[in-house]
Model the fold of this input.
Amino acid sequence: MFDFNIVTTWIDMFLRQTLGLGDFLSILIECILVGVGILVGYAMLAIVLIFMERKVCAYFQCRLGPMRVGPWGVFQVFADVLKMLIKEIFFVDKADKLLYLVAPFLVIVASVGTFSFLPWNNGAVVLDFNVGIFLLTAVSSIGVVGIFMAGWGSNNKYGVVSAMRGAVQLISYEMSLGLCLITAVILTGTMQVSGIVEAQTGPWNWLIFRGHIPAVIAFVVFLVAGNAEANRGPFDLAEAESELTAGYHTEYSGMGFGFYYLAEYLNLFVISGIATTVFLGGWAPVNIGIDAFDSVMNYIPGIVWFLGKAFAVVWLLMWVRWTFPRLRIDQILTLEWKYLMPLCLLNLVLMTIIVAFGWHF
Amino acid sequence: MFCILAFIILGSAVMCVTTKKIMRAATFLLFVLFGVAGLYFLLDYTYLAAAQISIYAGGITMMYIFAIQLVGKRTLQGMVERLRGCRIIGGMIVSVIGLATVVLVFLKNSFITSSALTDGEEVPMDVIGNALLGSDKYQYVLPFEFISVFLLACIIGGIIVARKEKETK
Done:
């Protein structure tokens, strides 16, 4: 497989030796490059995802979706972004302006933070701590505070009710998410994101095959909980437009709303990305143990594999979203606390037994 | 880097105690906790930093916010703390005592010299896990289990307080 480390070391060498910059300057330039790269990737993916959601939704409802702007409506999202950028941001009377302004940033920070943990290619992992998975769940929990502040800060009854619902739902489902990830960590024996992917390269080495029954259960529970965590699908109670206008971001306009919109779609991608990384082998190509087939597959770059798998999961989640009716808030909480979490705990024990006796592949 | 973090921590801490709106105080508390997590990152204690973010910033702050919500909006809006002279003096005395304690401990234990001896490396995860759940000397399974039993007792207590008995006919 192509190792992206070659590129990063080349840039590092170029800055240090060819240009003769010091430690501080070269690290600064590299940080800026990586930051810009992440943000550009974030924005591009958001545009692709929003367009995909509209088209998928339209086809599930036997419509055509956006068709007017550009061929097959491809420029619709760009037009929307332009509209959002030039809109005025105004404040609600008696709203807490500070919280109102800070809230979208917290949500977007949590989203970009988790986004930068994803492994794109062999050697192309931006944040690669040895506590990777744990830190990832920690960073994602910041978003809850942002959602709650938005509802509270905008001085709107619907906003507060929706923020309450959102916070309760997110806190509950974080539990299952964390437990599913721990189940995977037991099998790989490392929390480092690159280490987890590394353990899954090779024929039939994806965690979902290696850990058979508990891994499949963990994967399914992860997708359900992830869907709830991204505030989507049958779990989008926080923005049930029939009862709460638009939810906690009712009073936001312009880019304030834009940030929530971006974060929602990117959280969807991040959830699929984590599911891909942990259970479906990240950038690891499909290997079946026949040399000729494997070597052909290895020629396809890792980022293509990663994006392909992640978008397959995204499509699955969209399918779920536009097929199932919305749940009530008490049903959502019952599902989590009475079914998913006990299932996760049992699954954790099952996985520990399997790993302890070496019954995995 | 340390100076930036210290500035953020101190500034948010001062804002946290002087602001009049309680939700804002909770927000500034969140920033203080982020700053402390940043300090842990600076020291290469990534595990501790992750725990700080997930437990304090994600968990405890949310719990404070829910507690504030339970108080009710009417009482919150009327609640304005005034800075009074005797309180300021009391606060000063407490902070001076705190400072004295920290300085004393700092001078008594030679933290700086002992930490200078160990090179600043990231501690691997399995070392932390073994230390937390091992039963040998300098390992902490007993406090760990004690805390979990304690938390279980807290949860049961919370359920008993919150639960409404169905009225028996």
Q: What stands out?
A: Residues 84-357 of chain A form one domain. The longest strand of chain A covers residues 119-121.
